[in-house]
Amino acid sequence: MKRHASMLGSTLLVALFAVVSSTPFSVAAGQAPAVDRRSPSAAPPMGDLAAPQVGGGISCEAEQKLASLDARVPVPLLPHMANHQKQNMRDHLLAVQEIVTATASGDFGAVESAVERIGYSEEMGEMCNHMGAGAPGFSEQALQFHHTADTIAAAARLRDSAAVLQALGRTLATCTACHATFRQSVVDPATWSSRSTKTAPETPVAQ
């Protein structure tokens, strides 16, 4: 049990860093950062929107420099889509916190309730497909996370703490793998439509 807790603790630190970092994705546990072989002066494609400079914030030039140093695959998203995705990821982390706390106290009903927020549903599947419309492979990895999360609830129904932690560890492994591969790239509607297979939404994606 201590070994599972140790494994979970290190993985949770990676997940926490992924959410609080300046970009929504981070490098997987135990994996070396990808080497960017592009020119340091390379700028992101036209249409990418950098955050405006606001009182000590990061300038557009600095954002472009950061993007040029990040070799992960960009996921083109409209501003409201990117914001919604970050909100979801922060809630995913809260759900993980609730799962760990509930498992420690043996409250398996609370574990199942928390898993409902990160498990698979048709609505979640549609959202993943929409978010990843401009980045081949993203939707598949996102869906793998949600399907793997369902195994946590299955373990909770068996009232098996070790199995819950093992399932949670596998679920977080899908998170870190996805974060190591992809990063957000905020773009304008025309750019998003040109890179995706769908029409740019005019209203925020329903949660």
Strand residue content: under 5%
Radius of gyration: 18 Å
Query: In sequence order, what are the helices and strands, one letter per element?
Result: HHEHHHHHEH
Quote the distance from N terminus to C terminus. Answer: 36 Å
Q: How many strands, which pairing sense, and closed or not: the largest β-sheet?
A: 2 strands, parallel
CATH architecture: Up-down Bundle
Q: Strand order within the widest sheet?
A: 1-2
The shape is elongated
Helical proportion, percent range: 55-70%
Number of β-strand runs: 2
SS class: mainly alpha
Separate helix tally:
8
- What number is the mean pLDDT? 79
Tally of domains: 1
Reported by name, the CATH topology is Four Helix Bundle (Hemerythrin (Met), subunit A)
CATH class: Mainly Alpha
- Unreliable parts: 9-46, 49-56
Break the fold down into its secondary structure elements and pairings.
Elements: H1 2-20, H2 60-69, E1 73-77, H3 79-105, H4 108-115, H5 122-131, H6 138-157, H7 161-181, E2 182-186, H8 189-195
Parallel strand pairs: 1-2
Helix pairs in contact: 1-3, 1-7, 3-4, 3-7, 4-6, 5-6, 6-7
How would you characterize this protein structure?
This protein is 59% helix and 5% strand. It has 207 residues and is mostly helical. The chain has a single domain, classed as Up-down Bundle (Four Helix Bundle (Hemerythrin (Met), subunit A)). It is elongated, with a radius of gyration of 18 Å.
